[in-house]
Every structure is written in C-alpha cells, then in structure tokens.
Amino acid sequence: MFIEYRIAQLCKCSSHFLQTKSGIALMYNEETNNTYDVCLKLTKAVLTIQKMDVVCTSGSEPQVNHRTVVLRRQASGSLGLSIKGGAEHKVPVVISKIFKDQVADQTGKLFVGDAVLQVGISVHLLRTAGDEVTITVRYLREVPSFLKLPLGSPGLSTDHSRVSCPLYDMGLHLNGNGNCIASSPPSPSANEPKYEKRWLDAISIPLMKARVSRYKAGTDKLRSNCFEVYVLDDDRTNILQFCSAAESTDWLQVISTNINELKHENVFLTSLQIIHMGWACESPEGSAARRTLTFKFLALRGPYFHIFRRPPISAADWGQAETTYNLYEVLFKVHKLWLVEDCWLQARLYLGLEQSSEQQDSESLCFSILVGHGQSHTFRVELATDLAIWEKSFQRAVFLEVQRIQSKSYMCSSQGNVFCFTIDFGSGFTCSDGSSKAVLWQYKFSQLKGSSDDGKTRVKLIFKNAESKQIEMKELEFANLTAVLHCIHSFISAKVASMDPLTSGCQMFPGNNMDG
Q1: Which cellular component, as a GO term, is one annotated location (predicted)?
Q2: In sequence order, what DSSP letters do the residues of 1-40 get, joined into one string?
C-alpha cells in the first residue's frame, strides 16, 4: 500500500511542472540513413532544434552562406588542414581537421566541417596547386554520417569554438603535423571579417500541436535510443537519437510532460473538468501479423471518456470526438498483471527506472478500455509512468463520476417479467417491478458474494441473506449485459475507494462504510 501511495503521489506531482531543458542530440534522416548533430532547447511551449553553422560576426563582409579563402602555402608545402570525402563517396570534399597555428588556422575563415564547393576538387589538385590556393567553402550543416564521430565523443561540444574535431580523421593530410588542438587563431585586423560557429534555430515545434513516439510510424517496432516528434498537419519527420536509452527516456519524459501540461492549461481556460488527457497509440483488434497502429488523443472529462483523432482546442471541439463512452460503463484493464512479489519491479517501472526495450513485449505498456457489447479498445503508451498515470486517472475519474450520479438504473427481465435493476452508492442493489415500482428485493454491496454470466445477456448474482445467512441467487437478463457488469464494478470499486484514506490524494470520506 505504501508503494502504491508513493507512486500515486509521484504521478500526481510529476505532471504539474513545466520543464526547460537543453542538450545535444542527433537528427536522423530516414531517406538518406544519415544523422547529424543538433542542439535541443525545450521551453514551456516550444521545442527548438538548432543546427550548427558558421556566421560572420563583424567586419564589412555580409553574412553569406559561403566564404572564399586564399591559402598561401608554407615553405614545407603545407596548407595546415586535412580533407576527406569526394566524388567516390558521393559527398562533397569536407575539411576534417585544421592544425593549430598553421595556414588554414591563421585565416580565421575555415572550420572543421566546411565543404569545398569547387566542382572536381581533389586532394591531388590541392597538393599540386601553386603557392597560392583559392577555395570557396560552406559549412555543411548535415554532415554525412561516415564522416562523423559518434555522439558524445571528445571534441563534440556545445561551445562556439572555431577549431574542433567532430569528424573522423580518415582523410588525407595536407600538412605534416597530425595534432588537432583547439585554439584561437591570431587576431585579424579590424577590417577583416570575423567568423565563428554558432547553433542557429532551424526548426521550431509548437508543443500544443506536437506528440512524441518511440515507435516507427504505423508499426509496433521500437526505435533504439531515439524517438520521433510529430507535428499536426506537418509531413516533416523529426527523429531524435541519443547516446543512451536513459537519456532518450529523459528527453521523452520532459517533452511529453510539457505537451500534456499545455493541453491541461488550455482546457483549464475553458472551465472544463478534465482528469487527464494525452496521446496514445491504438492497436486494431485482431492478431494480424502486420497491424497498422494509429495515434489517438484520449481524454477523461467529467462523466465521459473521449477518443479523438486530434486534440480538442476549443469548447466546441469536444463535440467532435470520434467515440465517447460513459465512464461508469467502461472497464480499464492493464495488460501486464504484476504479482505482489513484483512490487519493487512495478515501482521501478512506474518511476521510469526500468526502460530497457529488451524487457518489453507486445503486452508492455498497454491498456484496454472494455465497453458495451463485448467491444474494446487497446492502447499503448510511451513510458511506464504514462501507464501509471492513466491507471490512477481512470480510478479517480470513475470514483468522481459514481459520487456524482449516486445511482444508475437499467431495465431487465426475468421469467417473462420486466423489472428495474438499480445500483445505488448508498443502499446497494435494488430490483423493483417495472410497472408498479414496488421493491421486490434489495441487497447491500457487502452481500454480493459472486456472479456468473453467459457472455451475452444473462447474469446470475449470488447474495448472502443477512438474516438467514443463506445463499440466494437472482437471475436477470439485460439488453447490454457488459455495460451493466461494468457499472456494478465501478460502483463497488468506488465504494471500496471511499473507505481508503489514501484515495484521491488522501481525501477523507467521513460517514461512508461498506454496509451499503
């Protein structure tokens, strides 16, 4: 009970803090199978993806995308740089290293990652050119993956140093010194333009229109150490890759939190009673080998559970739900059932400490919403904390709805007679005549000892008579048996919850007891 309470408190608290965060990641391009460095900056409402570029910071020269540089060869024949790439690799020739205090370094205009723009340039041409070599370069923002160091390698930093080593030195040297040391070049004259590397905003993603997923689009296959940020009405893909699963999970968590909190803030302004809402991936019914997964926006609002194709923005949008169900007639079911002995593993999952994809299977992080006539919806979330929050939110939403309506009646029949079956939070179960309204029998919740049904329309309710202590069975037939059984479950769960001081954030419910 203590672990469950602490998890509930964590889930409640963790969803009320908008976070800011920044760091380095890789952007993955599925079409070219290439990755390149990006800087992420997360604020309350926007995720900004920055790309490195070279900018002119002073001098008379305008800020253009390319630079023309004149290199005067040293007596040793060195130009003070190394290059790699070329036509044989189907990529531009790229400067992979600049050597301290030598010709290329002293210009102040060349950087590791610069692509040589002249068509047909080669190592041979640069080596055999005269004492003065003129090249035109442009910083290659999306460096081909085979030229790059792994993410997190030495030399990959967030500072604006002009000299760094973000590329593998597998190219040919146009220099006699193999050291690559970060340093500042000699100060150019006042009239000379000055250049430096800077992270520049490239993509701005409004979180109100965003969702995130670790799964490959339309499949149940997990990406390794990365996730995709989707933007509504935007076909661009933003796949972010990280050094480790832990770092990927951390970024996924904070982005998801900010997205959800923004949705809640927007709803708060419209005075709608929202318990919880967020994105989830719906799995189609059936066990087909190739299943197409679709993202749905789910919301627990007042007496209803809504399923949307896109998030509601205005109050009018709430009438555009794809499907809406009465909360007291649905049943929430987590696919992974945890034994009591697994409570510490369960706690670690809920706290986000167990996120290894190897530990996940087709049932991991999934829950189902069972509705009337045997129908159901199955959803998958991104993190164990998401699953915990949905479970606790459903419990609270159902409890509040039962407290609000207090009772629910269904028409039924037995042996050709029409009855009215009522489930009441205070008194329990009552069956009355459909015409005269005369009470035929009544039992408290505590007297229900079991039930069985045919899975279609008929149910047998087994009660214990309070006076005779005898077992009594009542057989009833309903048009929508599943909805009735779910309603009974909701009322009994709410009755039990009303006895628990830890329910609903330690709210006490004086005067309630299980005699009802």
Answers
A1: dystrophin-associated glycoprotein complex
A2: -HHHHHHHHHHHHHTT----EEEEEEEEETTTTEEEEEEE
Amino acid at 244: S
Amino acid making up residue 61 = E
Helix, strand or coil, per DSSP, at residue 86: strand
Which two tokens mark 219? 């499949």
Q: Looking at the chain, which residues constitute the CATH 2.30.29.30 domain(s)?
A: 406-479
Q: Tell me whether residue 462 is exposed, middle or buried, using C-beta atoms within 10 angstroms of its C-beta: 0 to 12, 13 to 18, 19 or more.
A: middle
Q: What value does the mean pLDDT of the chain take?
A: 77
Q: What is the pLDDT of residue 103?
A: 86
Q: Which residues of 493-512 are buried (b: 16+ CB within 10 A; e: fewer)?
A: bbbebbeeeebbeeeeeeee
| DSSP calls for 382-437 | SSHHHHHHHHHHHHHHHHHHHHHH-EEEEEEEETTEEEEEEEETTTEEEEEETTT-
What pLDDT is recorded for position 392?
Answer: 92
> What's the one-letter identity of residue 426?
G
Distances (CA, A) of 482 to 448, 457, 459: 18, 8, 10
Instruction: Please give the CATH number for the structural domain made up of 66-147.
Output: 2.30.42.10
Q: Six-digit token pair at 290? A: 């190739």
| Among the ranges given (165-169, 221-225, 500-504), the one the predictor scored with the smallest mean pLDDT | 165-169
Asked if residue 276 lies in contact with residue 253, where contact means CB atoms within 8 angstroms, the answer is no
Q: Where are the CATH 2.30.42.10 domain residues in the chain?
A: 66-147
Backbone angles phi, psi at 158, to 5 degrees: -95, 0
Q: How far apart are CA 178 and CA 156, in angstroms?
A: 19
Q: Please tell me which residue, 378 or 261, carries the higher pLDDT value.
A: 378
pLDDT, tens digit, 9 for 90 and up, residues 411-458: 999 998 999 999 999 999 999 998 899 999 999 999 999 999 998 899
pLDDT top residue among 32 and 389: 389
Q: How confident is the model at residue 470 (pLDDT cuts 50, 70, 90)?
A: very high
Mean pLDDT across 100-119:
84
For residue 239, pLDDT over 60 is answered with yes
Distance in angstroms (rounded) separating the CA atoms of residues 233 and 211: 12
